[in-house]
Amino acid sequence: MNYIKSFLLLLILVLVSCNNSKTESPLPASPEGSSEMIHLSKAQFENAKMEVGQLTEKPFAETVQTSGVIDVPPQSRAVISAFAGGYIKNTPLLVGDKVTKGQRLVTLENPEFITMQQSYLETAEQLSYLKSEYDRQKIMMDEKITSQKSYLKAESEYKSNLARYNSLKKNLEMLNMNPASVQAGNIVSQVNIYSPIDGNVTQVYVNTGTYVSPADKIMEIMNTDHIHLELKVFEKDLMQLKKEQEILFTVPEASKETFKGGVHLVGTSIDPNSRTSLVHGHIDEKDESNFTAGMFVEAQIVTGTSNQLALPETAVVEMEDKNYVLLIENENAEEFELHAVEVKITATYNGFTAIENTSEIKPDSRFLTKGAFVLLQEEGGGGHGH
């Protein structure tokens, strides 16, 4: 029985090994020594609108690597709070809502608002009487009819009341109450808080019925019209940077796409702990709407260019963490004969990829520069239709 089990086990291992060998990709593990040839007919080449090209010298960016965040200027961000405590009576806005400067954001209610208006009214009425008394005492003092003590007392009471009147008036104005309306007898228990800027609601910290004190945040509003890059650059790289240099950046968490911007300001001080300085960059206008403040970015600041041998990006195909190009070995009236060559790439810029030379690539070598991806995917998947 043990002999039979051993034999069956051996048979299973052989079958598994055979199946694995059948599913291997025909792509070479390395460019050297590969004889796998791909045949591409001229008709297929024309129908798929493929293209052929050679290595050419192209300028590639010399860059400073950095990272940072997308942010807005301080004046484009507003934290809304109340100048006096109260209960939230009405919150009509949600996160993401657009608001304009002067638009009502929330309504606060507090019985103390009534007391404050009554105090203002009483002070205003007293002020009228005390002003008249002060003016009368001043005239009498000039004519030596009254004593200096009576005059000084009238002056003190008037100026003290005037200070209180102005203070209460300012409090009403800060709460968006109209002092003239209050003096006309219009007493209210509710006050509105209005937006100080145009923008969008980014945070709401309260619900209807919440009590807020003057120190509490009610909501945050942000205007992204002037969104920009705040990048941290190491001290060793700072001397290479200057205004208007190109910035190439990505938002790794959101997209692989590369966006463009430009250096606007280079920091003039170094953080003693991180040994970095801030670089302020502007984003191309066509891309600004794609972002929101707080996004993490990885960026390259272009400090110059150097020429390197390159092929169009479409000529290079990444498969299983390796990069390949299709080298044309032979061509006749009917077809192309190509094979995959593994290459090392050093940079990609403006639609071209810099290729590190290999022993198989000669100065006059020709490559499939458009259509390589489809062809290699078919071959890599085991298809031999060409």
Automatic annotation (TrEMBL):
Gene3D superfamilies: 2.40.30.170, 2.40.420.20, 2.40.50.100, Helix hairpin bin. Residues 1-21 form the signal peptide. GO terms for cellular component: cell envelope; membrane. This is Efflux RND transporter periplasmic adaptor subunit. The keyword Transport applies. The keyword Transport applies. InterPro entries: Beta-barrel_RND_2, BSH_CusB, MFP_Cation_Efflux, RND_pump_MFP. One of its GO terms (biological process) is plasma membrane copper ion transport. PROSITE patterns: PROKAR_LIPOPROTEIN. It comes from the Bacteria. Residues 78-221 form the CusB-like barrel-sandwich hybrid domain. Residues 229-302 form the CusB-like beta-barrel domain. Belongs to the membrane fusion protein (MFP) (TC 8.A.1) family.
